[in-house]
Amino acid sequence: MAAPKKGRRPTGAQGRPGRSLAIILIALVALTAGMFLSKQTTPRLGIDLAGGTSITLKAKSEPGKPDAINETNMNTAVGIIERRVNGLGVSEAEVQTQGRDHIIVNIPKGANEQQARDQVGTTAQLFFRPVLAFADGSPVAPEAAQNPTPSPSASGSGAPKAQDGNKSAPPAAPSSSATSQGRALSEALKAPVTATPSPSTGETKKADDTTAAAPAPTGPAEAAAADLQAKFAALDCSVKAQRLDAGKDAKPEDPTLACGKRGDVWGKWILGPAQVDGQDVKDAKGVVDPQRGMWIVTMQFTDKGADKFAKITGELATKQMPQNQFAIVLDGEVISDPSVSQALTGGNAEISGGFTQQSAQDLGNMLSYGALPLSFNEDSVTTVTAALGDEQLRAGLIAGAIGMLLVVIYLLVYYRGLAFIAIVSLLVSAALTYTIMVLLGKGIGFALNLPAVCGAIVAIGITADSFIVYFERIRDEIREGRTLRPAVERAWPRARRTILVSDFVSFLAAAVLFVVTVGKVQGFAFTLGLTTLLDVVVVFLFTKPIMTLLARTKFFSSGHPWSGLDPKRLGAKPPLRRSRGTAPAPAPLDAKEA
């Protein structure tokens, strides 16, 4: 007879159950410790269980864009709003279209709920526009509009970064340079549109302005410039309605008016055509400047945006105050107007000045995820209570408890002592599931909703099914006449294949459901997939090792009637005594055959 191959574990080997049990014990202790260290011992709840806010947004038509409200733009807006809200850690937020021009946003109650509400309908249209003139936010006499106050500089250094004018004090009274500033403003407003080819030479010639006041309008371009200056003079930025209408419907390529705050004081600007927009920003985030100890927003431009930004800052650096500044305009409001003294290359910039942690992070979040393709009005805001969710959760938990009780009764009646192993394994699986859900709520914002609870209840049956498969394989081996210890080990390879195939099918179904669905159904799929993976972990690292150890005890190994492994009750065959490979003895020949 050939000798067995070295290094191959013989069938029925006991393995090392203590090592597997130590691994799962360490995992349980580590997860529990992490849960308490995170100072959160309960899972985060979704809007159906914790309550929250439901916001209805209505898309509004814009002049010149009659077909802007379409399915593509609405779906794009839904994606951007969802990324903004979830970027603040408000997971399980539901964002979906309703009808042709409405979007419904459901935000669970939580620490970042108000921030999410503030960002839901914000268009976040960002433009970098050159500053042509600045004045305080109060209306002025028409003649004063020709001599606007220069915007104060915030930088005396030539450092290659944008310095913010918004952190400066309110503007001073008009200086003696107001006349030259008025001429510069008139020239800047008219230059892009009044340059006309000379009939004789074909060269361009700009209108000459040598007086403090702008010349009387002589054509459409001059009239437009005069009209913009008149509106600038009359604009009162302390009035909200006028602030909102200041640059309304202005095209990026046209000069416009805008309001903004310098500290606690409103200011107003005449701004040139946009040179860089939000689509040129690759990434933005709010951070603390370690040198100045203040919150700033850092921006990284795309390659195309970096070229644009370097070009415009290079042009502005050659001009005088305030036309060496560019305004950062978000949704029509100036949030910063830094001055530059040299071209800013490298594709990076920063916005500073008066930011709090929340405002810096909010701005970085909106710039990172982009502008909405449409403008929205807030149609309604409804507070959702958790009363209905509490009733449904209570009903779901009662149903789960009843199901669990029925499973336990079945195990006790049919498997008797083996039921102890199954129940302890279910408790281990429940502990792992609970601690992981708590940590996921803290780490990635996972929120437990009603469908997720249903997924956890369904997982009870999946986990119990794995135990039953293993127990039945052990019983089959005992029916074949083997004693308990070899039966436990011989049953495992066959049971393991069945368990892995079954769990793979369940996990695949959960993964497909998670990918092809949205909203609350994803919570069901996520929980089902998570508990399926944990079923494999528990069966391999706990149920099998604990079964190996209990098989060594007298209660189970002797086949006690209450162990669930009584050979007589199972109809076991006589023990297999004969060794493998031994041929049976030939029967004796009778006299006739001899």
Overview in brief:
This protein is of the alpha+beta class and 594 residues long.
What does this 3D model show about the protein?
The protein has helices at residues 17-37, 47-50, 71-87, 113-120, 178-194, 220-234, 240-245, 303-316, 357-369, 387-415, 418-443, 450-479, 484-516, 520-550, 554-557, 567-570, and strands spanning 44-45, 52-60, 94-98, 102-108, 126-136, 196-197, 204-205, 256-262, 265-271, 276-277, 281-289, 294-301, 326-330, 333-336, 348-355, 375-384, 447-448. The longest helix has 33 residues, at 484-516. It has 594 residues and is of the alpha+beta class. The chain is 46% helix and 17% strand. The strands form 5 sheets. The protein has a 5-stranded mixed barrel with strand order 5-9-8-14-13. The chain has 16 helices and 17 strands. A hairpin with a 2-residue loop joins strand 13 (326-330) and strand 14. It is elongated.
Question: Over the alpha carbons, how many angstroms does the gyration radius reach?
Answer: 37 Å
User: What characteristic shape results from the CA principal axes?
Assistant: elongated
Oligomeric category: single chain
Biggest sheet architecture: 5 strands, mixed, barrel
Supply the number of helical segments.
16
Biggest sheet, spatial arrangement of strands: 5-9-8-14-13
The CA-CA distance between the termini, in Å, is 32 Å
Averaging pLDDT over every residue, what do you get? Answer: 75
What structural class results from the helix and strand content? alpha+beta
Helix content: 40-55%
Low-pLDDT segments, ≥5 res = 6-13, 144-184, 190-214, 578-582
